[in-house]
Amino acid sequence: MSNLTIGFICLGISILFIVIRMPIGLALGAPALVGLSSIIGFNRALSAIKNIPFEFAANFEISALPMFILMGTIALHTKLTTSLFDAARVWLGRLPGGLAIATNYACAGFAAASGSSLATTIAMGRLAVPEMRRHNYDPGLATGVIAAAGTLGSLIPPSILMVIYAIFAEVSIPKLFLAGFLPGLLTAFVYMVMILARCRLNPQLAPVAARPPTAQERWQSIVEVWPLPTLIVGVIGSIYTGFATATEAAALGVVLSLVIAAAKRSISWPVLVTSLRDSIHSSVTIFFIAVGAVMMTKLMALAGVPQFLTTTMQQYSVDPLSLVLATSVLYLILGCLLDPIGMVFLTLPVILPLFKAQNLDLIWFGILLIKYVEIGLITPPVGMNVFAVKAMNPDIPMGVIFKGVSWFIACETLVLALLIAFPRISLFLPSTM
C-alpha cells in the first residue's frame, strides 16, 4: 500500500470518527499515529510525535489563547455585557424588529469580549430570548437571531478561532484580528437589513413596544454601557498602535476585565474561581484537539497528500477562483456534518498548501474559513449554536428554530459571496498597519 493511500485512508477514518462523535483530539490523533506507524514504523512514529504536546504548548503565541478565553469567561460571569443589551434595546427597540436588531448588535459587542461563538450564544440567549418572547416576538425570529448573531464570536476580534488559525497558517495574529472587523460589521449590518425588511412586511413577527423610552432612559443607558467598549478599545487598540503584541494584549484584556468588574462590584472569589475553572477546561480541550491536528498534519506531509492535491490541481489548470469556490462548497458540506473545530483542524493540513501554491492571501482565506465555520454553527444536522438555543428554550420545537435560522443562513451566503468577490473588505484594515 502506498504512503499516499495510507494518508487518504487515515483522513477518511478521522472524518468517520468525528461524525460518530468520538472526541475530536482522539479522532485526529489515533488514525495519525496508526498512519505514521505504517509508514515509518511504530517506534519512529512515537519518537516523531513525543515532543508535539510540549512544542505546541510552549509556543509563545499560543499563550494568547488561554488569556483570551479567561478574559471571555470573566466578562461572561461578571455580566459585563448586560448593559450593552439594555442600551441597544432602549435605542433600537422602537424599530420594526427592534429587539432582534438590538440583540444582533449586542451579540457583536459581546463577541468582541468573549471570542467564542458558543459563549456569545449562551450569554445573550439568557438575556434576549426571554425579553423578545415577553414582547410576543415570533419564536423563530427570537431564537434564530441568537443562534446566528452568536456566530459573530468567531469573526469579531479577539477571536479564539483566529488565534488557532494564525498559529497553524503562520500568519500575523494582529493582522488577522483587524481583517475580521469589517466582515463582522458587514455581517451584522446584513442581518439588520433582513430583520427590518421581514418585520416591515410582516409586523406580526415583532410587535413594536408600546411605550417609547424617555430621554433620561436613553442617556442613562449610554452611561452604563462603558465597560465593554473600554475592554475592546484596550485590547484591540493596544495591538493596532503597536503598544502590545497579541499575547500581551490578551494578558492586558484579563487585567482590564478584572479591573472593570471590580469597579462595577461584580467580581467575587466564587466568580473568579468559576471563571478560572471554565477557562482551564476550554483551554485544555482546545490544546488536546490541536495536538491531534498537529499529528495529522505530520502524517499528511509525510504521506504526500498536499503535494498530490497541488500537482493534480496544476495538471487540470485550476485557477484561484475555482479553488476558492471548490473550497467553499467543501466546507459548506462538511459544516452540515462535522463539529466546526474538528472540521478546521482536519482540513487545514490539506487546504493550506493548495492556497499557498496559488499564492493566495492566507489572511483573506482565514476570514473565509471563519465564515464557513459560522455557517456550520447554524446548519443542520449539527448546528451547535442551534442546539445551545434549544437547550435554553426546550418548549420551542427544533424545526421552528432551524426555520428562523434559515433566513440568516441566506444572509451568510450573501456576505460570503461579497468577501470572495471583494477581498479588499477583509484586507483593507490589515494593510494600514
Overall geometric form: globular
List unreliable stretches of 5+ residues: none
Query: Main sheet?
Result: none
Q: How many separate domains?
A: 1
Q: Could you give the distance between the termini?
A: 50 Å
The helix-strand sequence is HHHHHHHHHHHHHHHHHHHHHH
Fraction of residues in H or I helices: over 70%
What is Rg?
22 Å
The fraction of residues in strands falls at under 5%
**Strands, count:** 0
Helix segment tally: 22
Explain what you see.
By secondary structure, this protein is mostly helical. It has one domain (3-431). It has 22 helices and no strands. The chain has helices spanning 3-19, 24-40, 42-49, 52-57, 64-77, 82-92, 98-114, 117-134, 139-149, 160-169, 173-201, 215-224, 227-240, 246-263, 269-303, 305-315, 320-335, 340-357, 362-378, 384-392, 398-421, 424-431. The termini are far apart. The mean pLDDT is 83.
Keywords:
mainly alpha, globular
Summarize, please.
This protein is mainly alpha-helical and about 425 residues long.
How is the secondary structure organized here?
Layout: H1 3-19, H2 24-40, H3 42-49, H4 52-57, H5 64-77, H6 82-92, H7 98-114, H8 117-134, H9 139-149, H10 160-169, H11 173-201, H12 215-224, H13 227-240, H14 246-263, H15 269-303, H16 305-315, H17 320-335, H18 340-357, H19 362-378, H20 384-392, H21 398-421, H22 424-431
Helix pairs in contact: 1-2, 1-15, 2-3, 2-15, 5-14, 5-15, 6-7, 6-12, 7-8, 7-9, 7-11, 7-13, 8-9, 8-20, 9-20, 9-21, 10-18, 10-19, 11-19, 11-21, 11-22, 13-14, 15-18, 16-18, 17-18, 17-19, 18-19, 19-21, 20-21
